[in-house]
Every structure is written in structure tokens, then in C-alpha cells.
Input
Amino acid sequence: VQLQASGGGLVQAGDSLRLSCAASGRTLSTYIMGWFRQAPGKEREFVAAISRSGSITSYADSVKGRSTISRDNAKNTVYLQMNSLKPEDTAVYYCAADESEVARAVREYDYWGQGTLVTVSS
Output
């Protein structure tokens, strides 16, 4: 499966942004989907994940209550809605696909998109 993340940009603190991840090559419903981010000089970290049906979601504490992961299997697309953005949310955001189960570890994910940059100014 090939993943293409989009929707990043430069926003101000407090703004909202919706990231999209479009899949091609295989049906998205085959996979658990996750969002990760990597800030300059830091390791890639988990943001959110969603089960194949969308019935189970998981969030990092740093974004819980401010972000919502969702999926539209008919459109082969996963979304990450981020609200009340903070400067510390600045990072390259990656979507990833996992063939097994909902997970938070980078090593559990089998396929990765190229990333989209989110910059939040104070």
C-alpha cells in the first residue's frame, strides 16, 4: 500500500488543521492506521491510531481531547483533525499502516507515508 499525507501548513496557536492520508494500491480497510509526528531533533512519536472499522481509537496524552482520528474506508482515506494547536505540535506528521492490531510503537507499523509539515506559530 502507498500512503500520501497532506494538509499540513503554517498556522497560529489555537487554530485547527485537518490532515489527510490517502491510500492506494490496497484497500485501506485492510489496515490499522496511525498518525505519528517527528519534531526537529526528536524521535518519531505516536499521535493517534484507529482500528479497521473505526470503532477503536487511541491517542497520545499530548493530543487527547484536542485531536480526532477518523477514517473513510470508501474513500481510502484517514484523517487527523487537530484543534487548539500549540507551538509544541510543530512537527512532520506521518501516516502509517499496520497489518496486525492497534498499536503505538513505530516498529509495529509496516507502511509509511512521506509526511506533511505542520508549523504552529505562537
Notes: The longest strand covers residues 17-24. The two ends are 37 Å apart (CA to CA). Residues 36 and 47 are 5 Å apart (CA to CA).
